[in-house]
Give the backbone structure.
Amino acid sequence: MESSSQRFVADHVSGLPRSGIRDFFAIVAAMPQAISLGIGEPDFVTPWHIREAAIFALEKGHTSYTDNLGLLRLRREISRYVEQNFELSYHPEKEVLVAVGVSEALDIALRAVLNPGDKVLYHEPCYVSYSPSIQLTHAQPIRVATAAEDQFAIDPERVAAAWEPGCKVLILNFPTNPTGGVTDKAKLEKLAKFAVEKDLLIISDEIYSELTFEGEHTSIASLPGMQERTIFLHGFSKAFAMTGFRIGYACGPQPLIEAMMKIHQYSMLCAPILSQEAAVEALKNGAPAVAKMKEAYHRRRDLIVGRFNAMGLDCHSPRGSFYAFPSIQVSGKPSIDFCKELLAQEEVAVVPGTAFGESGAGFVRASFSTSYERILEACDRIERFVAGDSVRSKA
Amino acid sequence: MSSVLQLILEGERLDTAQMAQVLDLSEAEVRAEIERLQAEHILLGWRPVLNPERAQEDIVRAVIEVKISPERDGGFDRLAARISQFDAVESCYLMSGSYDLLIFATGKDLREVASFVSERLASVEGVLSTATHFMLRAYKEQGHLLLSPTESGDKPAVSP
């Protein structure tokens, strides 16, 4: 029955690869005792005052729909927060849309602007959804590889080289999941110039921006002339440790937000009200908790990067996010084999770089969003594995 | 605050070698810093945080409010130091408000604490009155939730 029902699945969905993460998850799920550095979310639970705000809202009976764009109270807070932290001014009533996480915001942004056959530039290795989301709009993804020697910053020259007629959008995500790469202001200025020259719309996913350890985070939208051609995406999952709340937002020029709103209203109607209430509290009073978590990530980053380099796995120091992205080329193994063997022999889970696109080959993603003790133990085991000294062979 | 102390206060059980790795210091530097903290009486001890509901079933804890008369030289200090010497006293603080000293005391049962209060504490010269409150149940111990500890729930071991 399964195989015959397959004929009902749309061609472009059939052709879509499953996320490499899902496949690897199935293997790790069978080994609950393994130390996982594969978790793409904070190890912190949402700060209590934010959880409490959601409970209070529930107690008060806030269980209704909200405005399609989201609670105006929340949009006002978002507008204030974005102005304060990104030097960007958006009108809360017309230029802000609250979405079910940045994932939905990205999806509706792409659907709102792309016609079939349009081309979209994006950098890779990148978050797993970018290329599939583009393909689901019947547009064509065009990969721009970022490289370890550039600390995984995007190289404007490579963007120019990858550009071809029909390119309409450039997706940026800095700091980047999985590499922790950032792109400095000088490079963003070059990209901005290129975007104007080629009349590109920028969709900038800045979900990890608060977790920038060195240097100031700059949003490309804040550069002169860029706000009118940028959809700025942000959310609460990473900085406020609110992944399960599924809440994010898009800010942009009114016609684009209006177009996105049409899709959002028919597909999602609105983001869940309890998550919106929690988000209001996060923006009003969450800054101290964010600072504390960032400090914890910072120290963990220094620890894990130091250990990877010491054991011979070249690893740039990610300037943002909670991911280290060491090269495992020295092992001579493909990423997926490295990860499977490491898991079998040492019971440590890291994610193959190829789960984030072909340009992730030769790398693995190790999340340092966990305790020192687990990081240290995991590093001891990886070191043993890399040195070929693993004794436990369960393969 | 010193980085070593900050790391200790984060509460993870790390040995000196591990602390050195986390802080990117040599083991000798970490050891020297811990010795300094101890020598300067900043770091007083390494007692673990226990769940009183589980670990100390046979221990009774009480807080005692004590009024004492201050002395011409030294105010409350001499008397407070003297009271603090009793083994039953875990902690002792001078407070603002309607009483002077707040004592956290323990005993193996109710009778032991009661006899400490009536026979030892109340009889110290200068102690004017005491009010003893026995602890019935602990909900949070030094930052750790006891009744509803945070659960990691169904967080997937690998996620994008």
